[in-house]
Structures are given as structure tokens and as C-alpha cells.
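To: structure desk
From: M.T.
Subject: fold request, one chain
Message: Could you run this one when you get a chance? Sequence is below, nothing fancy, just the single chain.
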Amino acid sequence: MKSNGKSQSNKFQKATTSEIIRYSFGGLGSNIPFILMMTYLNYFYTDVMGISALVVSGVMLVTRIFDAVTDPLMGILGDRTRTRLGRYRPWIIIGAPLLGLFTFLVFYAPELSESAKIIYVYVTYILYSTFSDFANIPYHSLTPVISQDPNQRNVIVSLKQGMGIIAQLVITSFGLNIVEACGGGRIGWAWFGAMCGIIIAISFYICASSAKRYDNLSTLPEVTKETKVKISDQLKIIFKNRPLISLLVSFFCILLGGAVSAAVNVYYFKYILNRMDLVMITSFISIIASVVVIFIMPPLAKRFGKKLIYIICDLISVLSLIVLWFQPNATATVLCVALGWTSFFSRFPSNLGWSMLPECVDYSEWKYGLRGNSTITASLTFTNKLGTALGGFLASFIMGLAGFIANVEPTAAVKDTIVFLRFGLPTILTVISALAIIFYNIDNKMIQQIRSELNERSAADNAAAASE
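Reply: Done. C-alpha cells follow.
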């Protein structure tokens, strides 16, 4: 007899409310450094440390080349780890304090010669990126581990994105004020980086405690010669996974556009509008708009499907960007409404992307017999870092080519460049993102089928093992 959706959902393993709340703290630990780097790193390097925009673009590019090796390596290591503490939690426990430390060091500006300063920037940012892998890839890998229920996964992702919004609120709305309150300049940024580093470490430790019941030695399958997976097979599950490829391309475009926009945001308010006071106001409005999404996304995704909501909201979000692209000197009221509009609708695909990732993990196990939580997660975290860093690179490189000089009145060409990077390029990339996600072929009906068949396979394997 065919099961209805509700009865099928009841068969799924679910996390408790306490576990979900503690797991969501990973969203705080993950998003604080992410938003801090995306929002202020270019500005900090050029206007505080005094490094040229072209040198900054080189830092971003070299680090992403390094990530091309470390991200998949971390994914492979994560899926092959077998310890008393489990598969993923040990990496979070090790990575949390190191990520916090290097977040501080990135925003610590010692008095050095020009060449020594550049070396310091390269070393600290590359190590920050490496230890970000240690914490973030295992953290995101735990989502499909702690819950098998697709609707609860939507709630889990919404809550951890909600923690991300708290990080966004503090970093974007109050960050510059906190820096000034801590003494401003190099000292202020160092104190701000230290505070963020401490919160990052504590948040990830709370997150790791949530998965103790699901990620420990007793939950890991025995590894034999017959069940051991080749590294080449682990990597194949990325390139053969159609919905994952669609998601990676789409998410890359979103992140690239968002990173470019964030990298020039402070420049836009400082050099185009001469209204630095609006940074906090517009950030706060954008965050309020994003908060609303946390509550309405799960029921909308359940009712209409993630893919449809993703595409519609992607396309609607660009309307206000187009307005500001052609009217960059709009009044404060128009600016606040437009940015609030974009923040509200763009938050849907940003949240849904992480909710769709566990579906890609389930699809891989269902289609190819290989699960690869960390390997698949690493592909999205690499896409995440590639998009954000390439956005920072493009912003610095293009502004450098246009003739931007920090703290000097910009030319008309520089102003046009800032406006295009802030509104024009994100518009184009968001449209491409919507087109890419069309090829995502998992819907609510398919995920129910996948989970049902995977549960049947698991039950059959357990029965066979018990009879031996």
C-alpha cells in the first residue's frame, strides 16, 4: 500500500529541539568570519593597512588557488575519519579555536615594512581560509546526519541562517561603530577581530555538542576492503551528480554577485553618496527583511517546492538592483526600500541552497551507492569561498584598473565602476543563477521516494547483518 507524505515523513530520523538550537550556533560561528571578510576585508586592506587594490586582488586569487586543493582534501578526509568522537565533530573541535585565532590575525595590522606587510597578509589569509575548512566543511556535513526529514531540514537550515542574520546584524550594522568604540584605526580593528574570534570558537563548540548522539564511533559503519571507497570514486559523486552541479553553478553566481556587491558597499556609501551614516541604517533594514524569510521559507518550500521559490525570488530580487543601477544617487528613502526589497527576496535562494545540499547527498547515495557528506559539502563550501574571494578579487582588480586610490576623490570612471560593481554585475549574475537552477531535478515527491528507498536498503542491510 502506498504511504502518504505524512506517514512517510514520520519514518524519518529527526533531531530534538535542543539539538537543532545548539546546531544552529554553527551558523553564527560560520557567518561571523564569512560576513566580516566579505564586507570589510577589501576596505581594511586598502584604507587601513594601506595596501594597493591590485595587491589585494592578488591575495584573493592566490588563496582561492590554494583552496582548490585544501577544500576537496578536507572533504575526503572528513568522509574517511573514524574516531571515538565520530567522523565530523573532531574536525570542528580542532578547527574552532584556530579559525577564531586567524580571524583575529587577519584584522590585526602590525607595523611592518611594505614587503613584510604583504607577506603577513598572504600568510594570515591563507591560514584563515585553511582553518575555515576545518570547521565549516564538517559543520555543514552534519545537516543530513542529524535529520533525515526533508521538512525538518528546512527548519534546521532556517535556524542556522537565522544565526547568520544575527552575525550580519552585528557585523554590518554595528561593526564600524564597534571599531570606533574600541579606539578606531588599527587598534579598533584588532579588538573587533579578537571579539569575533572568541565568539566563533565558542559557537562552533556549542554546535559540535549537538551532534554527539549522531556522530560517534558507534554510528560509523565498519570499514572493510569491500566497503572502502576509492578517492577517485569520492570525487566522481560530485561530477556525476546533476542536481549538485546545477546547485553549485547557481550558488556560485549568487555568491560572486553578493561578494562583489559587499566588497564595494562601503566604497559606494563613502565615495558615491558621501553618506557613511547610511551603512548602518540600510544594513539594519536588510537584516529585518531577511529575518522575515526565516519564518516563511519552510512552509513556502513545503507547499510549492524549493526549486520554484528559488527561481521566482532570484528574478524578483533584481528589480530593485536595476533601479539603483540607473539611479545610484537615489534618495535615502528609495535606497532603503530598494535594498530591503533585494535583501528579502535574495535571502530565499541563499537559504534554500543550503537546504538543497542534503538532498544532493541523499541523491548520491540513492543513485550511486556513495553518500560522501563531506565530499559533497566541500564542493559547496569551495564554491562559497571561490565566489566570495573571486568577488573580492574582481572588485579590487577592476577598481584598481579604473584608477581607484584610497581616500582620494574618485574620477567619473571610478564612480561608474563602483556603481556597476555594486548593482550592475550582481543583477547579471543573479539572472544566470536562476537559469542554472532550472536543471535541479529533485522535487518534494522525489525526495520522499529517495528517503523511502534508502530506508528500505538500510533495513535490509541490518537484517542481513543480524542473520550472519
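Reply (cont.): The radius of gyration is 22 Å. Let me know if you need anything else for the meeting.
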